Amino acid sequence: MSSAATRPAGPDDLWSVDEHLEDVLTTVRPLEPIELHLLDAQGCVLVDDVTVPVALPPFDNSSMDGYAVRVADVAGASEEFPAVLEVVGDVAAGAGDLLRVGPGQAARIMTGAPLPPGAEAVVPVEWTDGGLGEGPVTGMRARSLAPEGAQGQVRVHRPAEARAHVRAQGSDVKAGDLALEAGTVLGPPQIALLAAIGRGTVRVRPRPRVVVMSTGSELVQPGEELGPGRIYDSNSFALTAAARDAGAIAYRVGAVADDADTLRAAIEDQLIRADLLVTTGGVSVGAYDVVKEALSHAGDEDEPGGGVEFRRLAMQPGKPQGFGTIGRDHTPLLALPGNPVSSYVSFELFVRPAIRTLMGLDDVHRPRTRATLRTDKALGSPKGRRQFLRGTYADGEVTPVGGAGSHLIGALAHADALIVVPEDTESVAPGAEVEVVLLG
Predict the structure, then answer these.
(1) Which residue, 63, 59, 56, is CA-closest to 166?
(2) CA–CA gap between residue 368 and residue 366 (Å, rounded)
(3) CA 258 to CA 133: how far, in whole Å?
(4) How far is CA 295 from the centre of its chain?
(5) Does the pLDDT value for residue 352 go beyond 60?
């Protein structure tokens, strides 16, 4: 059983939102670290601090296409009185053996190429005649088309200060610097830094694999024809997308009919690829609430793996919930209600923090803030229930979207926040300050 599932409770006792969340987060544990190649580690959480083994850049290099020069040789240069320098060759990016720039000399240099010995600055090619003996040019001709550009003379029309257009060794990061802290989520910029300092692999906690399945014989897949009494399955799509948004690798399973044996078999099939299972629907008190029927005995002697407890929470929407672990690996399972808004709100409050905990993150919750309620009339809330209303947030104000009904998915699509009404509050007046959960 989950850690808090033995909490004394009568059949009519309600769990608070906080008690249920604590039960989930004390049961779920971060996944074990693994070593992954950089691109496979995208979206994962770094386990160890990473220090810089070599400075970036590892050598002084040019930030422009142009000519590497000595400062004294171009002092006072102008278009009327250009400095005329001997071109001693090319320095391309990746060059190893570098030529030396002496007095009265210049080396044609490309962006990213090492600054050759003797050179003190780089003048952009636009400040020169490009070796053509005419006025200022806008670029260099390709070496394959004009190899003579690496020799002859170049006229420089402007002076340059020391270190002009030179990227200094270590100007980005220095050897021994902390590159990334443990706990960092690896996105494209972080992966770029790891590659730049030579790390081919990195130790991370893997992205959790989350399997989402909805239940209900009334559900039809989008794109198929609706029959009498049928509805399209939106929950599994919403929750799979939400799991991916939270950082998981999410798998959506097609809707399972209202049959306990079928559901048990489907869950057993999915355990092999799941770090977390999420079901939606079938957790209330109806005769066809198949999730309760299928999982209420999970964890018996002939079905090892912990157990799933179904409980009622003091919240709206999302009163019926289930949580526990199943299978020999004690895979966590969260059973959410079937109404679309109830399902999504439950995901944000309980499943998303569980996913972020599996990832090894310290901050697993959506950000919260205080906002001024903008509405034409007071909002009612049931006594003893923590209500979560959909809203739109902007500039310190939040406006309700749609009503309190748990089926209003159209309003949910336009919401970017949840308005939290505490259990001891039955009415919230326009202009009142309220707590807001920011959804994105």
Answers:
(1) 63
(2) 6
(3) 85
(4) 33
(5) yes
- From the CA atom positions of the chain, what is the Rg in Å? 32
Work out the pLDDT band at 71, boundaries 50, 70, 90: very high
Residue 276: how many other CB atoms lie within 10 Å: 23
Other CB atoms closer than 10 Å to residue 420's CB: what's the count?
A: 17
Tell me the pLDDT tens digit for each residue of 94-109.
Answer: 888 889 999 999 999 9
What letter represents residue 83's amino acid?
A
**How far, in Å, are 20, 126, 277 from residue 24 at the CA level?**
6, 64, 13
Closest by CA position to 62, among listed 142, 137, 168: 168
What are all long-range contacts of 184-187, with beta carbons under 8 Å and residues at least 24 apart? 184/45, 184/46, 185/43, 185/44, 185/45, 185/46, 185/247, 185/359, 185/361, 186/41, 186/42, 186/43, 186/44, 186/45, 186/46, 187/42, 187/43
Q: What is the pLDDT of residues 295-345, one digit of tens each?
A: 875 544 445 456 899 999 999 999 999 999 999 999 999 999 999 999 999
| Cα–Cα dist 152/94, whole Å | 23
Instruction: Measure the CA dihedral 226/229/234/237, to 10°.
Output: -70
How far apart CA 133 and CA 128 sit, in angstroms, is: 9
Contacts of 32 by beta carbon, 8 Å cutoff, 6+ apart: 205
How far apart, in whole angstroms, are the C-alpha atoms of residue 289 and residue 281? 7
Please tell me the distance from the alpha carbon of residue 50 to that of residue 62, in angstroms, as a whole number. 28
Residue 105 forms beta bridges with which residues? 86
